[in-house]
Amino acid sequence: MPCGCVIFSKEYSSVFARCGVSAKKLQGFTMKISVTPISVAQIMRAGKMDAEGFVNYCAEWGADGVDILDSQCYAWFWKDKAREFKALPGWLGRAGIKLAACATGNNFAKFNEEALLAQVEIVKNALREAAELGAPVLRIFGGHHVDNGGEPGMQTHAGLPLIIRGIEACLPDAERCGVVLALENHGRLPGHSYEVRMLLDHF
After folding, report:
1. CB of 143 within 8 A of CB of 162?
2. pLDDT in tens, 105-116
3. Coil, strand or helix: which one is 169?
4. Could you tell me if 138 and 178 are in contact, meaning their C-beta atoms sit under 8 angstroms apart?
């Protein structure tokens, strides 16, 4: 089962307490679940499910929403981009679920300037697509640490400043598009929660 409904319970109260969140504030709190197509990537790549089928599949399992992938990094998700972009709102409406976010597959951890700027363009393109589809959020990556498939020498101290540069270059477009950038710690730059917090504090 790829999705469901999660209610925070007492067993998690100590974890949230360490984050400054009291158990009382969590009483009755329900987390909404959105599903990413990465969950069914093999099925979709094999041609056994298309974008509309993905939306319907998530609705059948009781998801509240779906994440939709950008056409540049995840071309396998789309068969006819122009037609499917127009059809998506109808699919969602009939299925009774929301478009929670869009997602792209950038990697800002690039020593080469041109390569870094190319990754910035990937995110900018994804922002335009997210705005066109009406997504409130675009999930982005930071970058890949050398120990996670990144470039030679791409350690944390070298990579995080590049992540900051990449995000900074995308912020004007995000503001113009009215889309929030959501950073996932895929690739380990950032990896730890304190590294994510450092990046948030920077901005």
Report:
1. yes
2. 999 999 999 999
3. helix
4. no
